Amino acid sequence: MNNIGLYIHVPFCLSKCPYCDFYSVKPEREATDGYKKAVIRNLKRYTQAFSDICFDTVYFGGGTPILLHEEICEILDIAGSHIAENAEITIEANPCITDADKLCSLKRFGVNRVSFGLQSANDNELKTLGRLHNAADGEWAVYLAQKAGIDNISADLMLGIPYQTQKSLDETLKAVISLPVSHISAYMLKIEPNTPFYNQKLVLPDENGYAELYLKTVNMLAENGFEQYEISNFAKENRLCRHNLKYWSCEAYIGIGPAAHSYFGGRRYYVTRDLTSFIKDEIQNEAISDDNVGGFDEWAMLKLRLTSGIDYKTAYEKYGIDRQTFEKKCRLIPKNMYISDENGIRLTPEGFLVSNTVIGILTDI
Ligand code: SF4
Questions:
Q1: What pLDDT digit, counting tens, does each position of 5-59 carry?
Q2: Which CATH class is domain 296-363?
Q3: If you measure from the C-alpha of residue 165 to the centroid of ligand 1, how many angstroms do you get, rounded to a whole number?
């Protein structure tokens, strides 16, 4: 199996943000302890079944993984000999739960990347999102990580927050750019069914408003050295997220924990969102039946999320689809939404704005 990514879903949060549909529950002692043991049990199954397994990226996502920093140190210790020397090891962190001791012990156990859910630098917007931190907490947390010796720091931002304006976004971007972060993810707020936001009458930007917020973000980040490499992701100093690149490049990764996904051996797997069953060892990775796994549609759809796009040579070698076929499809798309040259095709920020439609047209071959 060799090099592979490892994703561990940590399904605990202190409270539920009203827009979030990720799987998480309250961190009761008994549950966190049972969860840790279940993760270790699953991890050992993989390392015993594939003795040559080597995790070159490890990502603790959630939920709020930093709540379980001691358990995570133990898990990293056990995974130890199967983690590559130069592995990227990321933990997602909520600023108000971050402190110097937690970051220093995580660093000692190999964590070398922190992704902070800052979302905004505007206190009213953070309150609207139900976040437990304010803007000052966010800044403080980033500096704590830097002081702990972790210099690969990412910040998550949200676009389209109720009442967010061009001006407030401008202030958020300026504030975040001034911090020692080398990676920024900027996601559009999506109102998911079964969340409190779904049943509220929220004042949200219209289509044009979203477009302005997104294009402003892309331009301002580019002007400040953050190169866009995916629809929602920007990096400077070449600090692209190696783990997430595996998802978009159809590379193998193992997911452990309730609600985690995996992709290996040419198949996709999913663990049911049920902590109790996970702890009791009643659920395993279930194969997702999908005829298209590893097929052209999936490959092209993921590649077109990246600014590097599709290269014609690979498309032809892997799937027998040539440049002329793509160029015929391009005639159906406005010219400002893509760039096509002798090497391949990629979307522009205007194309990313309507990526579902554009990618649907380009992959309908
Ligand atoms: S902290 Fe993150 S995972 Fe937890 S509820 Fe809020 S948005 Fe969701």
A1: 999 999 999 999 999 999 999 999 999 999 999 999 999 999 999 889 999 999 9
A2: mainly alpha
A3: 23
